[in-house]
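User: Reviewer 2 asked us to show a designed sequence for the structure in our supplementary figure. I'm pasting the structure tokens here. Could you produce the per-position amino acids so we can include them in the response letter?
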């Protein structure tokens, strides 16, 4: 079976990104950071079940381990950025109707480890072991 074009969920994510950019047009400094922070919390609050639990714990992890990262949304995902570039984000399972959510790290994350390293992690539940791993990754991502 061959599919062409973007899925409905992908088109919706692109619309959300366009709305995020439009919402921030002309907003600068502390006002921009405050709006982005609120948008991130609203995105987390809109989640349910394990998506919400994982996103809430990721928010705590980033706040504690990398306070220099600024909360915002990115394609509707709760995200955390340095110099307006997203470093880490949570892609909820519900967003694309997948069986797991994922925590992803963009190119600006300094997770380099030889010629190959993971940048996205499937997460079913934020267990203490998973939290420990993500704390270490978030710290490394901003070193």
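Assistant: Here is a per-position design you can include in the supplement:
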């Amino acid at each position: 079976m061959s599919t062409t074009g973007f899925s409905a969920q992908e088109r919706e994510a692109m619309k959300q990104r366009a709305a995020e950019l439009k919402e921030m047009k002309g907003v600068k400094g502390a006002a921009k950071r405050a709006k982005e922070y609120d948008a991130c919390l609203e995105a987390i609050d809109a989640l349910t079940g394990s998506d919400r639990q994982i996103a809430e714990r990721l928010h705590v992890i980033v706040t504690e381990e990398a306070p220099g990262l600024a909360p915002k949304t990115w394609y509707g995902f709760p995200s955390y950025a340095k110099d307006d570039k997203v470093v880490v984000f949570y892609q909820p399972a519900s967003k694309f109707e997948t069986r797991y959510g994922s925590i992803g790290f963009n190119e600006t994350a300094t997770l380099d480890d030889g010629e190959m390293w993971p940048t996205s992690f499937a997460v079913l539940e934020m267990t203490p072991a998973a939290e420990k791993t993500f704390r270490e990754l978030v710290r490394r991502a901003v070193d």
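For the response letter, you might also mention the following. The chain has a mean pLDDT of 91. Helices lie at 8-24, 29-45, 49-65, 93-96, 128-141.
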